[in-house]
Amino acid sequence: MPGAVQAPGAPRASEEPTQDMFSFECQQSRGHACSGASPGRQGMRAPKSLARPGDHHPAIAMKTPGLPRALLLLAVIGTGVSGFLLEPKLSVQKYTELGSGEMAVCEVSNLAESDSLLINMYLQKEKLSTTQTREGDKEIAQTTLSFDKAGNYNVSCTASNDKGSKTTSSIITVYNFPDPLLASEEDVDGEDILITCRMPRMSPKVVIQITAAQTNLICEDQTSTERSCSLPKQREHNGMTVTCEAVMSLPGKVLKKTTTTVLDILFAPDFTDDSCPANRTLSEGEVNVVLCNAVGNPTPNVSCSNDKLTFPKGIMSEVAAHHSGQYKCRANNNLDNAVKTIFVSVQENPSKLRNRASSGTLLPAMLVLVCHMF
């Protein structure tokens, strides 16, 4: 038509759309209708330069009756685009210990106010009970995961509305890592103590290490669930602390658990030579203490006596010349008994007796015969 005005950039009447035009599906949804589309023709074209990948508000090109060769650009503007569903975001720990509850959260962002959305969460193929809330332009669902055995599990989240659905999934590893079980027992021959650390029902495998303070242990190779070490049976090891440490290595994470025990080494009673001398000479007028220590596990009962006279532990007795003689200290527990003989000689001390007489006092000398046990 002569004098007709052609819109800038519009294709001529005889031209087909150029290669920089692309087609997309125009779908009718709440609040956003596709107008101007002919029945059966939902495909529309818009310049690529106006609809770049990553745009949240694509430009829509439409033909208008008043300007058949012009392009009318409509921008869909808002905080969210109804019908455009983003990938759900699933938040869950990759590793969790058996027996502990693990929270899983799924959320979908960039929703329009009028959008309705349903979120379902699954453990393997089992649908989980969830709590779903709306916070601004986000729809959030959460649930607590529980497991009855160790292993790898698939956790998934599906968000859906009347336009379709999208799913996100993640693998969670459930490990079993109980506290180590540490025990000690004597070998049959009684020469060594066997120390065993066990890790029952563990998964995946752990490394077990047994240590004793300032003592070298002879350890066997570890099996799948336990490790054993031996220690020479010596009374000096009674009361020693032994530690078992178990180490589990996960990708990017190292876990440790420890258990300690105190060795209880049983042995028969015995008197220590330094505290219980076989011969002791005392002088009248002096205060003397005779100690008799007995060791054993279980703790022994100890008694000391001279002929038919028994000395209570820790009680002082008057000493005179007739107290000279042989004393026996006895110690016993359920393993055995021990006897220690002490010869006590009490000598007269005339000078001290004269000093006491001149001062008007005559005090007896005191002998403290004490039997100890520990």
Automatic annotation (TrEMBL):
Give residue ranges for domain Ig-like.
269-345
Q: Where is this region: Disordered?
A: 31-54
Q: SUPFAM superfamilies from the entry?
A: Immunoglobulin
One GO BP: cell adhesion
GO cellular component annotations, sorted alphabetically? Answer: plasma membrane
Which InterPro entries does UniProt cross-reference here? ICAM1_3_5_D2, ICAM_VCAM, Ig-like_dom, Ig-like_dom_sf, Ig-like_fold
Give this protein's Gene Ontology molecular function annotations: integrin binding
Q: What is this protein called?
A: Ig-like domain-containing protein
